[in-house]
Amino acid sequence: MKQHSGTYRSILFLFINLFTTLFGTLVFANSTASGSTYTSQFVVPFSILNPSLLTDSTQLKSSTDSIIPIGPSKKMTDSITVSIQQTKWISDRINAKLPDSIVNYQKKNFLRAGIEWFSIQAIPASVNYFIRKDPVSHISFKNFVSHLKFSAWTWDDNLFATNQIAHPYHGQFYFNSFRSNNFSFLQSTLATVVGSYIWETAGETEPPSINDIINTSFGGTILGEMTHRLSHHILARPSLTKGQRNKKEILAMLINPMNGLNRLLDGRWGNTTKGAVVDSSLVHTEVELGIRRFDAKEHNVLSRGKNDIYARIKLIYNNDDVDKKKPFDDFFLNLEIGSDDSSMVNAVNVYASLYGNRILSNLTGRHRGIVSAHFDFLRNEAFYYGSQSINYNIFSNYNISKRTKLTTILGGGPVVLAAVPDPYLHFGESRTYDYGPGADVRASATLSTLNRFKFGIDYRGGYFVTISGNKSHHYLHTASTSASVRIWKNFGVNLHSGYFRLEGHYQDHNNVNKDYPFIRLALAYNSEY
User: What pTM did the predictor assign?
Assistant: First the structure.
């Protein structure tokens, strides 16, 4: 087993130096703060990034202004129609020109952001040092100096969930310590990279980890901006009573603790006197609860499969229906949990737009080219997988008839870093998976008709080369089909079938293939907010 870390060290240091040199002074000197509610009209609805979630009855609506009063809409389902009382409540406050505590509180607070950012480093370090008395936390100045060397960077041996979930989640605290103090997306991204770098070099006696800084910075930025947008979307909705407002504050704080803390410090928690301004963003949510049948051993899901109960949440955030977009104007979240033997959390997927524009305008249909960032975590009884990647995608929408629509997606791009299980690897104390970069491709088609039926097919393929672990390369194939029918108002029935396959090809060991066929049947509830 060899670690090929030289190439990744070179790329890593080049990235850090270029990012800091080119953008460091610029982004912190930029006096234009990004508001908590997004007013840009250069966006594309993220429904095209995952069309399998939407039917004709739940297509995302577009807005032409970022701050608008909303009235009852005939196209909106009963669960999201705004009452006349709410409309008047919003209109009165907009006409009175009272500033909203979400939108207009845009003063940057570098001192507080820095204190919170430092606390995110200091608190876990103090717990490790004083309470756990972990020898790894007893870092000396000599350790710190040695970690600054180019050759010091290596790969760590942490558990899969620690590296692929815990580190990105910790990174979102770095990100939101600045984002919730009204710094821009780029500025907060820089704070995340620097925070991870300092922890790797000065937080522990162990050598700095290449995979940690990638997972913390890349994953932390994706999770951080997603939680930032969701929490502010919730707080920008109207509340008729103090109790409603406090419930939204609690929910928003659970999603984004740093923003909730700063609202408390600013005295904005539960503020209803300044009015509630409704922004142009819209969140579509689908919740599934059902039975899942799978077979990770016998390859016979029908006669020898196992059953378990699962729950799934899909969420699409969309800021507007126009052709251009900036980072995270649209994103998609998929969270699946179940009761099988692998883990409670079976899937976490976040796909976010970074840039997009209209393309192929001379062809039939509406086509967009979109650059997207992807965070993937997958764990089932057959295998586990985690990655961060960047794709270029072509999304096409076709109106076949008045009530029938077809959406297709074709995309692909580099995988920055993937974690793939290796049954022959026992690296350090707890690592049993390979690390390496690669490439992936994605393709899907969804047909919706009669405001009630929806059919979809989806494929994703990946190729990864190991640079930390046993000499190997891996292929990932995931294919699925789906059918949905809306049975009453927002309720429907969803049927999914699919096949996951992971192939490991080893230079010094026998090849290993893992298969996971599945069938899912669930009751679904759709809502827009």
Answer: 0.81
What would the pLDDT profile of 100-111 be if each residue is shown by its tens digit? 344 445 689 999
Q: What is the tens place of the pLDDT at every residue in 396-419?
A: 999 999 999 999 999 999 999 999
How far, in Å, CA of 374 to CA of 388, rounded? 6
Residue with structure tokens 């992971």?
A: 502
Please give the structure tokens belonging to residue 47. Answer: 């429904």
CA angle 167/168/173 to nearest 5° reads 95
Spatial CB neighbours of 479, under 8 Å, sequence gap ≥ 6: 457, 458, 459, 460, 498, 499
Tokens of 272: 């209803």
- The span from the first CA to the last CA of the chain, in angstroms, equals 51
**Maximum pairwise Cα distance, the chain:** 73
Contacts of 81 (CB under 8 A, 6+ apart): 72, 73
For CA atoms 463, 466, 471, 477, the dihedral sign is: negative
Residue 175 CA: distances (Å) to CA of 214, 319, 330, 440, 507:
14, 21, 18, 27, 40
CA torsion, ordered 502, 507, 510, 516, to nearest 10 deg: 0
Closest C-alpha to 454, from 462, 441, 444 = 444
Residue 387 CA to residue 473 CA, distance in Å, equals 15
Positive or negative, the CA dihedral 417, 423, 426, 432 is positive
Report the alpha-carbon distance of residue 345 to residue 351 in Å, rounded. 18
